[in-house]
């Protein structure tokens, strides 16, 4: 947790130096910290809503960061050593890839392992960068895909994390979970997944060009919970640990796909130590995790409650509201998790929200994990609410805040 707070502070200090602190929330939301800023493109900044002049200022500052921290030069090698060292290095790499492949094939919970040769992929466009690597749009067997190219993995810990994500991705097959085509093992580790053209749910609901009414609100909510239900009802259960609107993808047909299993874990005895470590985005993080309790499916339910809150608030007010934005003294996630865990603070639900929907969200937010509903129970209540909307559309439309009332 201390390392996360330090990364926050470094970013905030950097933005303050540029006199661009107003963009702090966007950078933190996108997890754009100093270690990956040199790879940030102007297009990424544009998608974040950064003004044209400010984009130029930021890209220049990012270049300075890159110049200040250039890649470490390779050690010089005498010409007569080159012929000896290169084959040895190549042999070591081949051995490492073969070992990794064997490990992935031997995994207990993994589905049919799919390995993809780098030559089968065509990279067409860079979509963005994150703390774990870069994401590209590309083609695989004629299908449009998203290719997550992971950062160079040399540490045993990083390799183990890759194995866990591969295991989760290959084990889950659901209409409501992003389709995993397979992994590339060399020359770089890549995850190849279906491409969802509309981007994340977060980008959809923060965009002014989309009308998010009760129809889309119910569709997004139900499909999100269905995806999570698939994870929770697995054998063994899968705990996502980082559910948020940024980790829900929307395809051309407006279908929701749960994605990003970098922090997900099977809920088994061997993962007990991992499941008590605080992970994810603090504003979506259940209060019990702050106190060192084990992540559980009910921790994910708290995060589902936050996504439901985002959807309802966007539908009723007609604009996106960041969770806890009404509390001006809370600017950053690490402040929010302390208040939610110790003081029971929760984001304010719009007062015109139908009472049964308000009750569903507050039940997901319950301080006691045991009192939160399961995904199956949430689905039942969402279908009842949807039926009420279909029968009384006029009443539901009346919940929306008119521009003149704002």
Note the main attributes of this structure.
406 residues; 15 helices; single chain; two-stranded antiparallel ribbon; Transferase(Phosphotransferase), domain 1; alpha+beta; five-stranded antiparallel beta sheet; Phosphorylase Kinase, domain 1
What's the short story on this structure?
The protein is of the alpha+beta class and 406 residues long. It starts with a helix and ends in a 9-residue tail after the last helix. Helix content is 45%, strand content 11%.
List the topology elements:
Blueprint: H1 2-17, H2 24-29, H3 42-47, H4 52-68, H5 79-106, E1 121-130, E2 133-140, E3 143-150, H6 156-171, E4 180-184, E5 190-194, H7 201-205, H8 214-232, E6 238-239, E7 248-250, E8 256-258, E9 265-266, H9 272-275, H10 287-290, H11 297-317, H12 333-342, H13 355-364, H14 375-391, H15 393-397
Antiparallel strand pairs: 1-2, 2-3, 3-5, 4-5, 6-9, 7-8
Helix pairs in contact: 8-11, 8-14, 11-13
